[in-house]
Write a sequence for this structure.
């Protein structure tokens, strides 16, 4: 009798619990319903912790909403949401010693559109989740820029009130940086990087899913700051201003934590994937430059991101817990904030451009039908930028009042970065030289990027030279510079990547004519919008103002009109993407005749990418080399042995 | 590269250099220049501009030529020549930018060192940034030298700042012509930033710190004096004037109000 019970119990232990049935299925199965009630539950737990502690300590008021929002709404509720969606199910079961489900691949791949709205462990699904989510936040941030330009069209304060204006440009920058550029690159790489190195997925698929689902949380937090007014200290959030801001400032501090955690997890995932999951024969010197770029970027992310997390925690603690990290009356040091902040935020500009360098290298080589010129120097210059990138943070502080001698070494390292960056630009141009250039949409974006990045790089030299920076810092010259490198730079490379891999990701072709129209409209509007900002900045217009000297009125009107054209140009993109994804013609496996591995599988690729593991036998860009192959599959072996000239 | 294409690239480069030079010269970039420090900064500006025009015309001419010349014909499916690199060229485009960068570092450092030096006959002026107005104070003549530690803006706990009554206070920055002024900046509440575009000098005013900057006005006039560090809702309105007058005008301005 007892034996039977034991046997029964032993059986229970070894098999996972059967999935719940009946009404419990809806409430307890991972998904949106469970996410809804678990979010509420965790909010309640957070509420209880705060109120309980305050009641026990006898603090007044017991129900103190500032603390409740930080603990319950910005910390506990998102954890409940993630748990409800099922992000932690596997780990929790494992941690509590429960039997874990054998991998049945049910969390893998997308069969219906609803599969994009759940915890999905397929890097291809996650990549698409990332890219579409980031484009949503890009459009939201873009709308804010339109409102900012509407205010600035005329010198008077006539459109929004000053607080709203400050919130608009602060949240605009925060969304563009933390919820568009950085995660959009992470998304594109998520999709193509495992394919490029011949891996079936990322090293940690469940971690990958979790990193994605942190993003909507961070984005909604940034947007929600408007309702509490508000986050209006600029994305740099300098203290003491940030500490005296209205309560909404903590929404930025916490959103950065969620977005930063997402970045760090993704970066770790990329590093482990690149180091351990390369296909046989894929040595470091045979990796496509996009993989190199994400390798260096991930190192930057992992090392630097904790610094911004710290800086925002300090600000928030000063604000709500009355600590004195930056309060001078209590011996705090406001410049300390800037050093910690920029120790992340300067490497962050390379986090926002190195993956773009990778994308552009892929596109230019394929579309010019030529190997990358100076491949090894291209890879090494990424490493040089990685190292130098950590030694230049204080060039954002040339007028901040830090130790004056520190400006000279920071200027030296800053200007030295021009050398590896210049190597990359020259190598891209040399790659096009004598090529057979195909001016497809991705190539237009890639070349457009090079031209804009040269202009942004040259204005960067002005800003790197301390005496000029003293005059130009915190003016519209800076605004022009960052938009040339982040919009003409990062955004153009993201578009190059989206158009280049759209056939691979969706299995369909986009409308090439609309793609080109989108490019030319954006390209012209970017220059009409941002080039004049150099002039008004040098002439004396400070940034982050809602009203300005009427002498700059005409230029600003022109800039605002151009900015509206720029905003409208993205409607073409959205239309093209939606219609082509739904109804575009089917894409062949390799529409660009690329040599890298992602083009050697179907579009979209099979569930686990490669039906057989590729054997890498050569460099990734051997265009024009007779018989050269980047990789062979078992079926191809004989063909290669016969030494037939095969063009990929 | 054949001689023919070299000549064509050179022509394009010259054309682009001419266009860029025209943009540099005919657009009024820099505002009026009204300080000795500004002269040095402008020299660096034009030096960097010359270098940038050179880099721009080389890069732009090569790209324009390459992109026009090497377009693929509509149904040309062939590949380009498999050129993997060229050590000599790669060394060249590493070393030449390095030399240019070093030149710019040297020029900038010299200008910076000269502008940073505190002249021996400098007049001490104290500037206080506060939401959302500037306050400028002038210690009595000789005070800075004679009285050790004399300051106009005394901080007394909890961020309160008292203006020493022996100082002359003014909402504008008033400076005598041709006499170096050493500005000592601080802030009452949040970070502000001193900027007079015509002086080219900018320096943050940070609560709890005293930052310093030298201005030697070279031209009588009335210039905008702007806060350039976001300091709150009134940041855009935190504008006043910097007035440069002759020494005798300045002396009588300064005596005014002292009688009271």
């Amino acid at each position: 009798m007892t034996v039977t019970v034991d046997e029964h119990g032993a059986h229970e232990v070894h098999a996972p619990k059967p999935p719940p049935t009946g009404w419990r299925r809806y409430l307890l199965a991972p998904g949106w319903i469970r996410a809804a009630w678990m979010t509420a539950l965790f909010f309640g737990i957070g509420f209880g912790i705060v109120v309980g502690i305050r009641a026990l300590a006898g603090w007044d008021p017991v129900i103190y909403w500032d603390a409740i929002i930080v603990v319950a709404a910005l910390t506990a509720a998102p954890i409940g949401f993630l748990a409800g969606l099922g992000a932690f199910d596997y780990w929790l079961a494992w941690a509590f010693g429960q039997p874990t489900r054998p991998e049945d691949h049910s969390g893998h791949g997308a069969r219906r559109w609803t599969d994009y709205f759940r915890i999905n462990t397929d890097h291809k699904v996650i990549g698409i989740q990332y890219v579409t989510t980031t484009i949503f936040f890009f459009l939201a941030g873009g709308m804010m820029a339109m409102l900012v330009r509407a205010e600035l069209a005329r010198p008077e304060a006539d459109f929004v009130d000053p607080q709203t204006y400050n919130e608009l440009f602060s949240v605009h920058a925060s969304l563009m940086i933390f919820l568009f550029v950085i995660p959009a690159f992470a998304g594109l790489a998520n999709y193509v990087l495992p394919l490029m190195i011949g891996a079936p997925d990322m090293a940690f698929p469940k971690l990958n899913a979790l990193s994605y689902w942190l993003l909507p949380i961070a984005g909604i937090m940034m947007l929600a700051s408007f309702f509490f007014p508000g986050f209006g200290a600029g994305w740099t959030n300098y203290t003491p201003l940030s500490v005296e801001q209205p309560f909404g400032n903590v929404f930025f501090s916490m959103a950065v934590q969620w977005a930063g955690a997402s970045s760090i997890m993704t970066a770790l995932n990329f590093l482990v994937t690149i180091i351990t999951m390369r296909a046989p024969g894929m040595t470091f010197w045979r990796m496509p430059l996009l993989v190199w770029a994400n390798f260096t970027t991930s190192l930057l992310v992992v090392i630097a991101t904790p610094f911004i997390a710290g800086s925002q925690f300090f600000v928030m603690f000063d604000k709500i817990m009355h600590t004195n990290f930056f309060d001078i009356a209590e011996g705090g040091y406001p410049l300390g904030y800037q050093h910690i902040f920029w120790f992340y935020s300067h490497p962050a500009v390379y986090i926002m451009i190195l993956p773009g360098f990778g994308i552009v290298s892929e596109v230019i080589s394929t579309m010019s039908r030529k190997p990358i010129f100076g491949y090894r120097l291209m890879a090494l210059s990424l490493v040089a930028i990685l190292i130098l990138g950590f030694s230049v943070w204080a060039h954002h502080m040339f007028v901040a009042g830090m130790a004056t001698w520190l400006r000279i070494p920071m200027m030296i390292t800053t200007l030295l970065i021009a050398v590896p960056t210049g190597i990359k630009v020259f190598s891209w141009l040399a790659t096009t030289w004598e090529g057979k250039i195909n001016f497809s949409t991705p190539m237009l974006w890639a070349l457009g990027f090079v031209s804009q990045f040269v202009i942004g790089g040259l204005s960067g030299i002005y800003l790197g030279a301390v005496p000029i920076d003293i005059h130009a810092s915190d003016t519209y010259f800076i605004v022009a510079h960052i938009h040339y490198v982040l919009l003409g730079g990062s955004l153009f490379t993201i578009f190059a990547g989206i158009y280049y891999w759209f056939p691979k990701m969706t299995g369909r072709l986009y409308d090439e004519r609309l793609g080109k129209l989108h490019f030319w409209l954006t390209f012209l509007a970017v220059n009409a919008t941002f080039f004049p900002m150099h002039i008004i900045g040098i002439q004396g217009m400070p940034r982050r103002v809602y009203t300005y000297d009427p002498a700059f009125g005409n230029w600003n009107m022109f800039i605002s009109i151009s900015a509206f054209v720029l905003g409208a140009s993205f409607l073409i993109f959205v239309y093209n993407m939606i219609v082509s994804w739904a109804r575009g013609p089917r894409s062949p496996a390799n529409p660009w005749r690329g040599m890298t591995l992602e083009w050697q599988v179907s579009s979209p690729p099979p569930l686990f990418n490669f039906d057989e593991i590729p054997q890498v036998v050569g460099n990734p860009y051997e265009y024009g080399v007779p018989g050269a192959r980047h990789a062979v599959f078992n079926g191809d072996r004989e063909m290669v042995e016969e030494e037939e000239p095969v063009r990929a | 590269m054949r001689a023919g294409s070299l000549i064509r690239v050179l022509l394009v480069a010259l054309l682009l250099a001419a266009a860029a030079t025209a943009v540099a010269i005919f657009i009024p970039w820099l505002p009026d220049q009204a300080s000795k420090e500004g002269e040095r900064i402008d020299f660096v500006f034009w030096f960097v501009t010359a270098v940038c025009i050179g880099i721009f015309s080389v890069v732009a001419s090569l790209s324009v030529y390459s992109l026009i010349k090497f377009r693929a014909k509509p149904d040309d499916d062939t590949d380009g020549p498999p050129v993997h690199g060229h050590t000599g060229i790669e060394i060249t485009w590493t070393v030449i930018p390095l030399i240019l960068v070093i030149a710019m570092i040297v020029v900038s450092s010299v200008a910076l060192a000269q502008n940073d030096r505190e002249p021996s006959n400098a007049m001490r002026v104290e500037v206080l940034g506060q939401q959302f107005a500037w306050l400028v104070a002038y210690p009595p003549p000789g005070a800075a030298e004679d009285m050790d530690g004399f300051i106009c803006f005394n901080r007394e706990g909890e961020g309160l700042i008292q203006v020493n009554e022996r100082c002359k206070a003014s909402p504008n920055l008033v400076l005598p012509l041709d006499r170096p002024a050493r500005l000592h900046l601080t802030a009452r509440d949040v970070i502000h930033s001193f900027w007079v575009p015509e002086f080219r000098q900018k320096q943050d005013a940070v609560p709890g710190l005293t930052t310093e900057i030298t201005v030697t006005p070279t031209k009588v006039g009335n210039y905008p004096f702007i806060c350039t560090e976001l300091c709150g809702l009134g940041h855009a309105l935190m504008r006043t004037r910097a007035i440069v007058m002759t020494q005798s005008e300045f002396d009588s301005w300064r005596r005014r109000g002292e009688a009271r």
The mean pLDDT of chain B is 89.
